[in-house]
Amino acid sequence: KSSKDKKRRRRDDTSSSSSSASESDSGDDRKRQKSEKLAQKVVSHLEKAHGGSQQFVWAKKVTKELESGKKMKELSIFRNQGREAERLEEIEKVRKRQAEREAEKARREEELTMMQRVRAAQEAMESEAKEEEFYLKAKINKCQRRLQEGRPAPIDLIARNLHLSDEFGFEPEDPWLHFSGLLLEDMEVLDDDIREFKDYDKYDELHGEFWDALAVVSSAELKDARRRDASDRAVLRTREGHS
């Protein structure tokens, strides 16, 4: 009886051990299946999040990490995703800084170009002013020489009111007097001289106003001179026709 009881207990122990092992294996299988299913969901979610542009091939690695007891937030796939996001963010910062530098460079180049244009314009104006001053002095010297030689032209008698009154010691006189009695050819010469002085002698405000007013008078006098010349020529042609 004692021997039979021992055999029965061994059979029961073996059966219990086998049952426990089977239950353990079954539990491991369920755990593994659960981990694999969860891993597939994680991978599928990340693939959708990346718009299908990146393929994840580490489902087994996710499964293994889940089986080892890691929590979702501890998975390496999420750490990698975080590092990727940081890398992309850093790239975006670099691109933004580069765009800002390029915009700043373009702005500086535009300012430099504008400064160069302004400088060139100023230099051109200064050069033009010097050139006009040179021509003005040349015309004044020409007037002075003719006055000294006693053969003044009408423009010399007008210009000395502004430039040569001290040197020749006379009181300023009415410039309109010098238009009187001029022939057409002389009036055309005087009109040209007045307009040249108007162009060159403009940096003194008083002188500029003087020549502006005189140019208006000269234009009117020139028209009258042309009208008189045409009338005189008509009279001559009539007389020649009767002779």
From TrEMBL:
Gene Ontology terms: cellular component: cytoplasm; spliceosomal complex
Keywords, sorted A to Z: Coiled coil
Coiled coil: 89-116
Pfam families: Cactin_mid
GO biological process annotation, one example: mRNA cis splicing, via spliceosome
Organism: Chlamydomonas euryale
Record-annotated Splicing factor cactin central domain positions: 118-233
Name of the protein described by the UniProt record: Splicing factor cactin central domain-containing protein
Chain intervals with Low complexity compositional bias: 15-24
PANTHER family with a match to the protein in the record: POLYGLUTAMINE BINDING PROTEIN 1/MARVEL MEMBRANE-ASSOCIATING DOMAIN CONTAINING 3, SPLICING FACTOR CACTIN
Region called Disordered, residue ranges: 1-52
Organismal lineage: Eukaryota, Viridiplantae, Chlorophyta, core chlorophytes, Chlorophyceae
